[in-house]
Design brief:
It is built from six helices and seven strands. By secondary structure, it is of the alpha/beta class. Strands 2-3-4-1-5-7-6 form a seven-stranded mixed sheet. The protein is globular and about 45 Å long.
Length: 190
């Protein structure tokens, strides 16, 4: 028997060193969703920080793993089992190199595209069939190593638009909850 709530997970790296980096786009969207829920994150034994409540009228658990990105799967499985949320009701919000900065794409399943947080999540869940909100961060300039690029802070020009884009990604999560995948894709996929 699975619960009817959704589990929404923002991916990122813990700690102040990573707070404003591109790899933490998922955490930034999760923070916006927590604000919309009127809640604040509290530590959970599953190695996640959690807010429980309602979002867009739907019961949700909002989580940020306290592990590093490449070990996100364990905490995600822990919190999903604790709340008995099936993989089909898990939404993972993450940064995406293969979308231009600010681009959004919603989908269910598929490959991980080299994203270590998604690889860890898929391996731990034993499935790739969770929902994803892909937040575009663009490709690194020139020959910059992607691993270095994702751990850098957003550029000044990007930061001017960031609050709007995080807000839009949070709107996309709410649309997923209320309208379902296809309608949300039609509205938000760019």
């Amino acid at each position: 028997m699975t619960d009817e709530r959704f589990l929404i997970v923002g991916l990122g790296n813990p700690g102040p060193r990573y707070a404003g980096t591109r790899h933490n786009a998922g955490f930034l969207v999760a923070d916006e969703l927590a604000a919309r829920m009127g809640g604040s994150f509290k530590a959970h034994r599953s190695r996640t920080d959690v807010v429980e409540g309602r979002l867009a009228g739907q019961p949700v658990v909002l989580a940020k793993p306290k592990s590093y990105m490449n070990e996100s799967g364990g905490p995600i499985v822990g919190i999903s089992r604790f709340h008995k949320v099936g993989v089909e009701r898990i939404i993972v919000v993450h940064d995406e190199l293969d979308l231009p900065f600010g681009g959004l794409r919603l989908k269910r399943g598929g490959g991980e595209g080299g994203h270590n947080g998604l690889k860890s999540t898929s391996a731990a869940l034993g499935s790739k069939d969770y929902l994803r909100v892909r937040f575009g961060i663009g490709r690194p300039p020139g020959r910059q190593d992607p691993a270095d690029y994702v751990l850098r802070e957003f550029a000044a020009a990007e930061r001017k638009e960031l609050a709007f884009l995080i807000d839009r990604a949070a709107d996309a999560v709410e649309a997923l909850l209320v309208k379902g995948l296809e309608a949300a894709q039609n509205e938000f996929n760019s």
